[in-house]
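Hi F.,

I've been meaning to write this up properly since the lab meeting, where we talked about keeping a consistent format for the predictions we share between groups. The idea is simple: the sequence comes first, exactly as it goes in, then the structure tokens exactly as they come out, then a line or two of notes. No screenshots and no reformatting. I'm using this chain as the first example so we have something concrete to point to.
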Amino acid sequence: MATAAASTAPSPAPPSTKHPSPSIPVILREAGLDSPSFRASALYFTEQVDAIERWLEGYVRTTAKVSHDLLGLEETIQTYLNKIIPPPNINAVDNDYAALALKRFSEGAREWWMQVLNAARKMDTMSVEPIRNFLQGDLRNFKETRRTLEQTQKAFDTTLARYVSQSKTKEPSSLREDAFAVYETRKAYLKASMDFCFFAPQFRLNLDKLLVRVSCDLWREMKRSRDAAGSFAKYSHEMDRIKGWSKDMELSEPAFKRELQMARRDIGESTLAAFKPSREIDDYSASTVPFLGSRGPMNVSTTGQSAVIMEKQGWLFLRTITGKPSRTNWIRRWYYCRDGIFGWLVNGPQGVLQGDEIGVLLCNAKPAVGEERRFCFEVKTKNQTLLLQAETQAQLMEWLEVFEVAKKRAFEASVSRDNSSLPGGVDPAFSITPPSLPEFSAKALDAQVEDGAGVERTPTLPVPGPEGGLLPRPSFDITTAPPKRSVTSLAREEGETSREHAARIMQKLDLHRKATFTAAADGGSTPTSAPTGGIASLISASHGLLPGYPGATSKQPQQQVPALPGPESQPGSLAPSTLAKPPATTNLSKTAVVYSGDRVFNATASQLLPTAIMANYWGSNPWGQEHTKADRSNLDHDDPFGPNSPSIKMTAVGDGEEIKSPSSTHKKAISMDARINHPKIVQPGPEKPPPETFPPDYPVELKTNSAQFRLLFPGVPLDEKLVLVFRASWTSTSEPDSEVPQMAGNGRIYVTPDNMYFYGHQMGLVVAYTLSLDTISEVTAAPGRDCDFIFLHLNQGAGDVGYTRITIKIFLEDLDLLHARLNLLVDDLQAEEPMDLSELIGALINLEKEECDRKSPSMDSWEEISEHTPMDDGTAAGRAVSPRNHDYAYKSRRRGARKPLPKFQIPTHPVIYEPEDMQRKVAERNFEISAKACFHVLFGDKSFVFPKLYFERRAQHIAQGPWQLNEAGNLQRQFRFSVNYTTRLGRPRAEEVVDEQTIELFSDHVTYVVTHVKTPWHLPHAHGFKLVTKIVITHVAKSKCKLAIFTKVVWTKPPALAKNMVERQALNDAGQDAEELAEVATDQVRKLGHHSRTKRAIQVYGNVGQQTQVLVFTPGEADMSKKAQINPRTLGQMLIETIRSFADSVASSLMMLAFAAVKKLWDVVTAQRIILALLGFSVLTNLMFSSQSASAWWNERRAASFMNRVGVSPNVVMSKAIYIADLDEAARSSVALPSWPQDSYCYATFQSIANSSDVDAPYEYAGSGLSWSSSRATARRLRQTRQKLGSYRHDLLVAMRTVNSVEREMMHAEWENWLLDENHRCEQVEAVLAAWNSSEDSNIKREILGRQKVLQSGGDGDEDKDKGKGVRGGEKEKDEAKRRNLQLWHDEYCGSCKADREALIREREKESLARAVLL
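Output, unedited:
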């Protein structure tokens, strides 16, 4: 639902999982929306807390006074006890009898009074002190939370009203500041709302635990008295179970609190994220939407657009003009637009009130461009104009868009549907309708606004005092039939005297006393309808004892509870005498239940409840509808089954009426102005659905709970009645690897003949879940100490349920009786002939009257217990079994002991039936439903199976007659239809055809035989024979049957020639029709569901023989184009087809012969030979390809080796680098500019703009001296872009310098290492020269020359002048020359190395000295 509100956040979307959590934080979601339901619920709970505080304080004072007064009488009591025994000096009393009597009485009185005094002493510690601690602790903390909520709500409303009142001319920067101020106050208000919703359930749970603990402690103390054999023993088990309920709630509190905390966090975060204002100042420049809304409703396309908003609701500000002189006020109201209706809600003194609902096709929404305020739009109708204001631009556009989309959808819906099916015969999109319930009408508040009295000056509504009562205005109910009196109708009825009329008016308006709004809501309307007249009075009378509903407050006198009407003096055990807590409680929640019992709320299929009722019971949205749709069947959306599916339309034609296609009636707009004192009464249409009725013997307690059941589960059809309601808590069990969230709750379980509905409200989390009884395979039970257990074992193939077992804990109900009733319901659902509602309720009541005298299971009777019953081991799934008292003994739970006796005996073996004289058996199907159900699927009064088959043959104007008895006493009906076709000469021709169906054998639940006689109008000699088809339905087993179809041809005038050819073609066509019939039947059974009940098949497809009118079936327009055209066949065509068939047979024979020859050849050739031949071929192929690949590889290897020897080899290193030598070239390429226009005046102007100011100056001031805005924008963009590029260039330069520094340090380090190595070699050369000069031995000199070679070759690569020359003995001149060369090389090279080393050492010393100075 796209319910993004104007000043409220949409609820957080659930996680995208297949099984979302069934626990719904209703109040938290309403707090996130800040809806009127949340404000009314918070106000109601605040009043309840104040009343609880007054009650507990009075109780504490009274209890303390009682204890103090009793203890003050202790001395008097002691004196009294001492005076019972006569003094010793009195001897006239008989010592044997009279004295003994006084002695025994004195001892008993002393013991009794001592127990009373001890109980009085313990009253302070057991009762007064816990309640005082609660008042000073939990109650005070909650009142502080409530005070914070009130303060933040007032601050938020004031800040929001101030923000939206800003004019369009205000500066955007100031508006942004105000928007953030509103956001901060909304944030604080949201936090306070979340805290309130989080602590309110905890306060309620703590209060319940306190009351249970105090009551149980006082009860235990009272039970110790010796005279506690009466009522104490009677209710002791009930008190123990209540204490067990309190323990169970305490054990489940952490899990629910954790889930509530998670929901609180998610909703708070999503709400704040949705309302966080923008920081862009441009977003605050817009004020309205000037041109949106001028288009018509037909211009909005809603198909294929997922982002289109279908409906919307939220807060808007409404302009009102009041007083003389007139003053303009803006009040805040909650508006909604959905289902073609535009309406509004407002917080009243007792709850959420509703205004008039306007059809969207009667109003025009467009922006209010001329309004001084921002984001305003107006909604115009024929008689009034509403000027509304949204909070933001986006919300304004959403409201205008949703109006356009709603008009589009409403117009399309009104064109395609008939108004006779709507309540009152009026399309809501074409009418202005006031609230049908006066107690929920906001007309009185409008009157106050118009008169200027009590006009709301702030966005919140104050709570008026008891004297400011709001009397209900005259209204009418457009959904009520004419014979039934309207709830608030004041006109004189037919046959009513003047005295009776006056008395009824006084009773309606309560003129004998000054009624407040609550009094009018509680008792101001009592319907006079016989079927439902006592429900409202029963609910209203019992609400003083109902938890979760507002009782009589201190402002109103307490009314006496009248006696229960009806034959039953006390309600039975089929339902409890109290009602469950509503999801969102307001002061009008009780009134909603009262009206739910008096009437049927006719709403749309998507809304299900009137807006006012939903706002005072569920909130702004029907939050519990996600898990409350019963899985009736797996229906196809394109062609759902039923008599009025989109593909086939059914129209009933009475006797004497002409058969014609239905036509749509003209739709008139009916406008009901709210200002008119005497509104016009709209007569309802003839097709208006009747109100809910109950059987004559329907129990009163079920009627009472049915009123609330319709509010909690509004999607349940009216024909599904309650048969059992009980209080329980439950938990679910799923597969170990399943991701299905656990379903847990505490509340009510409503049971109907088809489904089981779970409703729980615990710790602010609401569970509304639907479970079909078809998914329950077995119901077992086990007793416990604090509670009893019932286990619902679900089928493994239970569809999308996801659970395997549901454990139900009951505290106050009788385990054996409830177990027997659940078994009865499950068994009845699976029976061949289920009981109707009256019989089922009677059977459930009779179970209570039976005497349960079966013994409990012992060691010899464990076979009576189901194998699925879990052991009670003290865990969460079971409790330790303790012996129960006399009335609660554990009985045998065999399902056969409680199973009702069947109405008939079905065969134990499959029934076999084959009709005689039939030529072919053309189709056969087995179904998982009973034979009776299959019979009604095919031949029910509302079944469209055979008309659908006729449509396949392009039949038109199909009229299905009713089942009537023929001369033989069998039921028979006719099918009349017309066919249009074209003859061979091209002439159109129409022909009327009549077919018959006769039920030849009707053995209920066992065998059904129906003969269908059809006219083969499309074959030659059609008037000389008939096609006879026999449909046989037989019983196979429980909920199983078999469908068999037989065909034959019956000739009345056989032709002389071509009889066999025509008969063969007729049988083929009949076989094809039979297959289509079997497929359609299979499809209908699939949609009905496997193991479905016979009762459901009768409900959908109708009974047999009860329809008295002719039904005309019309195909849909889409289906007309799908069917193939069927033309009659002539003898020539059939002869050509026969010849063609013969040719096909010959060709097929030749092909078969060829295939046979190939097969024979294959048989001759053995498989081993073929395999060996294939293997040899594979080896040769592999050798050939592998040799070619090997030869190419060796050639490439040899070529690569040759190129390596030549010196040509590939460079395997691929690098990408830039060196210092490349920087100059890179810099030059970057400095070089591209070719620009030379001597261009335009380009010179551009350069002047680009260089108009310093580049380092802020870009906002660039071009300030230029006159044109485009030039200033160009200068700003150029300076901003160049500044960004300069920063990028700076970053690149810093990175380049860093890389250069690293390279320089690396070079310096390598230079130092290499210099040290060279100096070391120079020292070696110096040592060699010294040894040369001091030695005269030629051998030593020769060795020195050899070292000289080594040293010179290891130098820096200088040219070796004497390379390749050896030292030969006796050549002193050559040796001397070499020594001189070595000396010269040493002096030159080594001297340079020594100088460099000394310079390096000095540089290091300077650096060391500099670091020392710095340190």
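Notes:
The first strand starts at residue 23 and ends at 24.
The two ends are 74 Å apart (CA to CA).

If this format works for you, I'll send the rest the same way.

G.
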